[in-house]
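[job 4471] stage=fold_predict status=RUNNING
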Amino acid sequence: MELNVKYRDYVLDEFQIQSITEIENGHSLVLSAPTGSGKTLVAEYLIEKVLKTDKRIIYTSPIKALSNQKYRDFSRLYGDKVGILTGDVVINRDAQALIVTTEVYRNMAIEDPEAIADVAYVIFDEIHYLGDIERGTVWEESIIFSPKTVRFLALSATIPNCDELARWIESVIDHQVKVISHNERAVPLSFLFSYNKQLLTFKDLRSKLRGKSSMTEGPRDRRAKKEGDFRHFDTIKQLRSQDRLPLLYFVFSRALADKLAQDTARKMDFTSQEEKERIEEMVDTCIEKYQLHNLETAQNLREELIRGVGRHHAGLLPQLKELVEVLFAERILRVLFVTETFAVGVNMPARSVAYDALKKYDGRTFRPMKSLEFTQISGRAGRRGIDKTGWVVVPHLPRDLNIEELQNLVYGDIEPLLSQFDLSFNSVLNLYSGHKSEEVRMILKRNFAQFQANKSLPELAEKVAKIRLEIEQVGPRCPEKKNDFEEFMVFHKKSQEKIDTMNKQLDQIRFGIRGKHNREFQEDVEKKFAAQHQEISEQEKGFICGRCRSRSKCTSRYFQASRLRKKLNYWRGLLEEQEELQLPLYERKLELLRQLGYIDDKGLLARGELASRIHTEEITVTELYFAGYFHECNEHEINALCLSLIYEHRRRGNNSEEARPAAKLPEKVKSARGFVNSLARQHVFIKPLETRI
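[job 4471] inference complete, writing structure tokens
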């Protein structure tokens, strides 16, 4: 079919036309394109298409902030046909177009498939989150448990293996999945590197570092860098002088975003008097509307915004975040300090992007950024139709990355998307209660990890077949029609063990004996051992194979075949393991649930019924409930207890509110924490609670 090259007054790019064509042809689609290239336009086209039918469409996003933004955007376009369902907000849940977080959709697909029976399409925004070490399994389960009738639009940042992802989805949903991969940016990027208060090209940076080593930095130098050397001031000043604002300054700590915003606003001013008045009016209206007069954060933010500086992270109230977004969209703010979530789907590009650091805490450990993460954040630089170039400022921090690692991060290949599939107890319980054993095995074979592992199966199978052939070729070939080789080898093995024992004893006697009488004792022992050797030789002749002149060849082949059988068992075990990666984990968790009294042979018990409806720390919450802790606590203590279940102590920032000592906890909550930690010591799958909240 032919399509117009324009949609809503936008001239469509070729990849957008191709994507819409595949949608019109009824296909599922994986669309991979750089950040800010216009993937959302394809999603909007699909939503409009479904709204003209009697079917429904679900739009999933990885974070609540993005869900809220999409709800606002789509509500303006489609009115009350749009609803939202997240952990915090429920509006018009039966709407024809429903905006949800991916976790919410996964829960619907597993627990209430009838509720999505009339859904024609599911849009997965930021599907590359499937590779997220903490949450990636949610995306896989969402796809695996979706109805067969549903079609997918999967939107992804640039990844090298989007074809593999599409083939996996195709294998799960049993219909064709097309791939559109677009690698060109609408606005090209230029990278600058901050070094000694300068912004350099990579070539100039390498030239300056030639002959130097990060090892020459002393502890004082490293400590100064760690505590902050006003690098953000230098970066902002230079970008301002070169007319390269507005700037998104990315940091990996909420507390640091607050601190840098406050410091910058104290020392720098970016707004005209007219802009100040406009900002002041908008901020005061927001504070008045939501009664935020006594909120210190709101008052501090007000002073920063008036000077053209802002901050944006999950710690801000939604009303304040929305205010910041509006001001930034109106181009009144010049510098915005943001955390990584700002790069996830939020359509707020700037002329420049800068990084405070190149290492981040991923929920488990501090690690260097991945190329995919760097590419997505950097993609926020350059506004389509406004900027000819987007500028990205990268710090040279030897403590984070050496020069080769820095080059690879900025200019190297993006990592392929890898499965992070990990069965939760909630999933195990729902699989056990809702499916027969064979159905469970089939479902467990449909995850992306298994799909990726299957690529190595032919090679493993070939290896196993080759070893089997080798065993057949080296196996004993007796020239006699009659033989007793198996019995002979049993005798031969026992005899060899006996001879080895005698030889060891003889060596010990020789080592410990001195003098004439002792030598006589040694000779006597040697004669006895020689007699036993002779007896074994005579017994061997009692076997047909023991008298055969070819026995040495046969025994050599036998031992060679034994070694090959051990090798075969190893590779065959590896093959079987690769064929069913998740089954052993499922069975181990099932056995633990049986031990804890969550299931029996008939199905779920009371504990299992409760845990099957909980999606975070399900075992911990269930055990606390049945131990009576929730019954004994008031609402404030319950809130404190729930907070302690999900809290992760932040490793960066000096905000005292982030490091409240455990001694201030209510006694009942401390008691509950001790109870949970005792469970964690008994069961490896249960996570202990933090000692600080």
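[job 4471] summary: Residues 616-682 form one domain.
[job 4471] exit 0
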